[in-house]
Design goal:
single chain, mainly alpha, Helix Hairpins, Cytochrome Bc1 Complex, Chain D, domain 2, 3 domains, two-stranded antiparallel ribbon, 11 helices, binds heme C
């Protein structure tokens, strides 16, 4: 913007300012009317429909899946993606959002460009769009993740219907038995102290898997009791793991 443009802008601005109306009472009155309408709508909705009442709290549940409110799904997803990199979790979940907030706060100080036209502001435009797209994507994936104590793997292709049923049944036993506290399977579970099991079927035969489950190396607990008490479940578990290739 050169000197002439600047003077023209200031001239137009003062003309517009003289034609305009003062903030008080015009804009304030409009805002007040709109606020009143919003308030009345909220009062109407709460009288007419009330608030959703969820089931009573049960502190003994072991299947409750904690989830944030939808507007925090993007942060939740960042935390979920970073959970196996403890060194970076704080930076990713607290550091980066805080830096973004500070950058937003300081925007008027470092963004001194007088341009208003969005097409003349490619950097601001792409930064804004990238932020919106990233947050939308993270919100979507965060909202669609499975529960932390269940496996969400598709059975390998080429299985018969019976094998697929075994796969699903074994998946459930894995969820119930707490294997994911120590092992990663696909996208689920914790990376350690146990090794990832996503392809365990390639390195261990069913007999080896069953032997490991019965007589594991510490800290892995023994699942001998499962084999004794629910042989069917144990069988499904072993077959499920050997299908992971
Ligand atoms: C407390 C943590 C813990 C739990 C819970 C646990 N594991 Fe493990 N698991 C380990 C560790 C640690 C090892 C590695 C032991 C070693 O070094 O020999 C291991 C090893 C294994 C192995 C052998 C891996 C290999 O590559 O040789 C298999 C298979 C396995 N676990 C399956 C399971 C299954 C299935 C469950 C649930 C029914 C389970 N584990 C529960 C910690 C755990």
């Amino acid at each position: 913007m050169n000197q002439a443009e600047k003077e023209q802008y200031l001239r137009e601005y003062s003309i517009l300012k003289n034609q305009g109306k003062p903030f008080f009472p015009y804009a304030v009155a409009k805002d007040a009317v709109m606020s009143l309408i919003v308030m009345l709508v909220i009062i109407f909705l709460s009288l007419e429909f009330g608030a959703e009442i969820l089931p009573q709290v049960n502190p003994t549940t072991t299947t409750y899946v904690p989830r944030p409110d939808w507007y925090f799904f993007f942060l939740f997803e960042v935390l979920r993606v970073m959970r196996n990199a403890p060194k970076f979790t704080d930076m990713a979940t607290i550091g980066v959002p805080t830096i973004c907030m500070i950058l937003l706060f300081l925007l008027p100080l470092y963004d001194r460009s007088p341009e208003r036209l969005i097409t003349r502001r490619p950097i601001a435009l792409s930064a804004g769009l990238a932020t919106i797209i990233a947050m939308a994507y993270l919100t979507y994936t965060g909202a669609n993740t499975g529960s932390p104590n269940s496996v969400s793997l598709a059975p390998p292709s080429g299985l018969s219907a019976a094998e697929k049923a075994t796969f699903r049944a074994g998946e459930i036993v894995v969820g119930e038995s707490g294997c994911l506290a120590c092992h990663v399977i696909g996208d689920n579970g914790n990376n350690g102290p146990g090794p990832p099991l996503t392809r365990i079927g390639l390195t261990l035969r069913p007999g080896g898997i069953a032997a490991t489950l019965r007589n594991p190396t510490a800290p892995m607990p023994s699942f001998k009791n499962l084999a004794l008490q629910s042989p069917k479940k144990f069988q499904n578990l072993v077959e499920f793991l050997s299908m992971l290739q």
